[in-house]
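Lesson 9: reading folded outputs for more than one chain in a single document. The general rule is that every protein is listed as its sequence immediately followed by its structure tokens, and records are never interleaved. Here is the first one.
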Amino acid sequence: MSSRELWADGRLRAAWAARNWPVTFRRYRQLAGISQQRLGELVGMTQGYVSNVERGRHQISSAEVVARITEGLHVPVELGGVARDRALMEWAPSADLRDRIAHAHTAGRADLRTAELIGHVLAQHRRSEDEVGGRLLWPVVRAQLDQVTGLIPGTSGQAADRLMLLAAEHAHWLSWVAWQETKRGPALAWIDLAHGWAVDGGHTDMASWAQRVRAHYSLEHGDPVRALRTAEAARYAGPRPLSPAAEAVAVHQAAMAAAACAERDRARRLADEAHELALQAPVEEARPGWLYWLDPARARLQTADTAYACHRWGEAAEGFKEALPGLAGFPRDYAYYRARLEDAERRA
């Protein structure tokens, strides 16, 4: 496995960003298949010192030692400047970030191989966020976004459009984590950037997804009328038709908002429509990258979730029970839907 492939691992990157040296060393060795002796050779330490670091007996604070580790383990450039505390404090988008985007579509060429790698890494973060937690990965993804937007002023045409989509995907991820951390203002700022960048780049599915996320935020914040209006708009996000998966999640969000507005018949019709759309893209390759999770089991869970919101407890419990085994690799989501199942069974 190459060093680039090693550092695509979400847990390794999160450990590095948190300066958690025991986990960084152990995870790197596990992925690389090397001994403590070999790791020590790479970073200029004895085997015994590496062992003590992994056991938490030695703390690493020296800038010189960190520099040796950075060089010896071939830490990617976007991680080299991650500032743990400062990055976590700066939740909102910066003016400098917006300025870089404003210079898009000028003449020039960019290193799109770097962008493709960052896109692959972001996909890994999406999958690992459920286990690692978004707060730890926040500075990593924020640093990646800086690298992506730094490429945009040197691009034009389709290359610039691809980078705009990648920037929008990062902004959406940052928005989602900020919302989970109750940073609602920054969360809305990030999702607005994601939507704008998606529109600028001609990416209808991402533009729709950003609106769907805003609808979710409105519903969580207790405004189902606004949520329903926004979710309905997400179905018509651009000049090109949505993919079935992107339309499915927009319709599901509209169903949940309709249920919260006490429009239960409408909610049920929308839920059935969303399920049919989702089943048109049963394999991951047929869905946008950020909808990797929308497999048939998730589609069934969404239908059950709408039934739950409509107080159809028996139907909801049946759906949750049927689909829960499909969440084996997502412990946080499994716990959420398991609790839903138990509550629906009590109420049935």
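And here is the second record, again sequence then tokens.
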Amino acid sequence: MTTTEAPTGTELVRRLAERTDLFRKHALWQEENRRIHDESIEALADAGVFKLRTPARYGGYESDARTLVDVGAELGRADGALGWTASVYWVPTWMAGLFPDEAQDEVFATPDARVCGTLSPSAMAAPVDGGMVVNGRWGFISGAHHAHWQEIITLSPTPDGGMQPLMALVPMSEVQIVDDWHTAGLRGSGSVTTVAKDLFVPQHRILPLGAVLQGQSASVLNAESLMYRTPLLAAANAATVGPLIGLAKAAVEAFLERLPNRKITYTAYESQLDAPITHLQVGEAALKADQAEFHGHRIAELVDRKAPANEPWTLEERARTRADVGAASQLAKEAVGILAAASGGSSAYEDVPIQRIQRDVQVTGLHALITTSTNLELYGRILCGLEPNTPFI
């Protein structure tokens, strides 16, 4: 076990900016092959991206939330599928740090350990001596092809005849990957289905999901870490909002790159650059991208302010982080939509980035914990004095 001095968020963003051309070079390959390119994974590891949510004693950075947002945005600006995959790794990697230290020793024995996962309980577990046996499948497992471990959720019977959701860690070598990721967007994320058949999971790699959602941890050595003074959903929102911001910024950048050489067909404008409508479209889209960034940074500011003070989280604060990620999603989709609509018929070709950016931002926004309407409803319930209608807060 080694402790590594963590680079600043600014330094991490700089490292990734230097690799943008490489990431974009592989974007079309990733679309066609429905997974992240090996060279891009190596570049992310070399830049330190997989260390951001790893405990410091394993060489991780334990980066703050602002760093997550800014790094995620830079990755999303380079490629939406790449940004999404990296940000999704951060969430179950953070969750691995809630398990007993014995389990963490197994997971983080691999340098730059990558953990994929889900919060959906779509499997069943039977208690056995020393652990449980799991059978079932999990969908939307982003980054499964390059992960070392998967965090799973499964249901287990309780003595009173009910069911209890359990969270567990399993090596990727013990689950089967079903290559079923044929989608409209985020194709490069490789968010496939995984399957477990009679998979034994030892007790030290199992936690009750309810306890995790209530902020309980089984780790002794992470007890004082600032990174673990944040509720699961707030930590997840900080991790996943960045790529949405980056996609909005990528749309503005891609549109402006094509602008000088485009005319508006069937009009007198030989250059789209000269049309007043273009100025309005670019201005509105850029402001929406900035507004999305505001919501991402507001999540980060709250997380980074409360953790050092060890302040308890109110229901309103918890719900607001979900509302913020939902708002960022809506604003990013609007920003991209404005510029995609202004990009003309030639933008339908697959080698023009704006069409991929639009598909990626739309599919990202379909994630159940990002969907704008769901998150706004939850926030509104809390503001109206009602109890939340979900444990995922």
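What the second record shows: The two ends are 33 Å apart (CA to CA).
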